[in-house]
Amino acid sequence: MRFFDFKPLRRVIDYLLNISEKSVVLPTMILEQLKALGNDTRMQMMEWLKDPLSNFPPQDHGDPAIGVCVTHLQHKAGLSPSTASAHLAILQRAGFVLTTRIGKWTYYRRNEQAIDDFAARLIIDL
């Protein structure tokens, strides 16, 4: 599986967010996705989720494909539960993460297809 790295795009994202507020009309979904990535904490979460086995302890469910428990993301980011959930909800609305619910726990993983589609749309639309 190929992973898209957002780090090199950070300047481009900041630039596009800045000009889109002034004059350029971007497609709504791309604008929402750019806004989702325009935050350092969310960018860091995406980077951590790229390699969950290296960045988080083993998950209770035992299957890395299911994702990382929100509690682990919250603790690693040093955030309150509500703040971590808000950041992850923004990433989910942008389509960058998928969730799996097991009992009372929610697990997050990257949506590689949506990330690839986003990168392709940036090339085509911009």
UniProtKB/TrEMBL annotation:
HTH arsR-type domain segment(s): 22-126
Keyword Protease in annotation: no
Domain of life, source organism: Bacteria
UniProt keyword list: DNA-binding, Transcription, Transcription regulation
CDD domains: HTH_ARSR
Entry annotated with the keyword Electron transport: no
Gene3D superfamilies the record matches: Winged helix-like DNA-binding domain superfamily/Winged helix DNA-binding domain (1.10.10.10)
GO molecular function, one term: DNA-binding transcription factor activity
Name of the protein this chain belongs to: Transcriptional regulator, ArsR family
Organism: Pseudomonas mucidolens
